[in-house]
# Entry
Amino acid sequence: MQQIETSLQQVKESLVTAWEAAWDRGEVDRLDEIFHTDFKRISNKSGNVTTAQALKEEILSVREAFPDLVTTVDHLLVDDAAESIAIFWRTNGTFTNDLQGVPATGNSVETRGSNLLKVQDGKILSEEVTWDQSELLEDVGVPSLKSAFEPSNGGVLVDDLSGMPNLDELKGFNRQFITGVTVVTTKDENGKPRGLAANSYVSISLEPPLVLVCVQKTTSTYSSLFKSTHLGINIMSNEQRQTVGTFASKGDDKFAELQWHEGPNGSPMIDGSAASIEAEIKERFQAKTHTVFIAKVKHSEVAQLEPMVYKAGRFYDGAKLSAL
# Structure
């Protein structure tokens, strides 16, 4: 009995030592001391299966984003035969650097999880986890749509009856959809106005007054927008074709030649727009290459100007629409 207890204690100590070395200090190769050569990690949330090397890379990316990360193992349960181990843990850290394209917020966070380990020949053969990076982002206030963590299959899957077997035809479908044209605005940490052209604006509801806009993560405005508490959405009028071109470009100071004013919370409202709103950002959902912003309208301005219309890469006069 004493020998069994000693063996269990050794298993616990070696596990905690390697775990803390990897997660708290970035010494990921210490995991080789406790991992079986056939080790695999299974996420109960996404179903993804990863290797030891992939886990090491994930640990390093998390540590880069949370350099002060500290792990605490609250409970460690080992069965009598030392064939399975349950770990209940928590971590604390500050979101200091970007993670998976998500700009750092500077927020401190505590996240918790539990892992079930299967042991073979004294080494961890598999690890079932309740936690992954999407859980961490959710804990810092950035929930992710499931699609954000789905692996790319290299093609577009559609119903057999849709007649759209490839990406080009899907783009053709999208070109048939007519939208308005908006410029989404905010200010960066230095108070400089920022903005981008977007046609992915949607009114969600009037009560409460919620709107949605989808923004690509690679745009120069994205980081500033993500860190802001409010945003502006300006519906372009027929007289603002040049303005649209400016905000669709990669220029550093897109507001240099524009007349604009601030909303009550500082969001840039572009003069000459058909309508403008300022809204408080309530949710940020990660969706692969884009972020979906959901915001509550706090201020609105409507002018007696006709809006611009967009279809298939061209702009049209919204005043010349004819009724069906």
User: Anything to note?
Assistant: Residues 2-142 form a domain with the Nuclear Transport Factor 2; Chain: A, fold (CATH 3.10.450.50). The first strand starts at residue 35 and ends at 43. The chain has a mean pLDDT of 85. The chain has two domains: 2-142, 167-318.
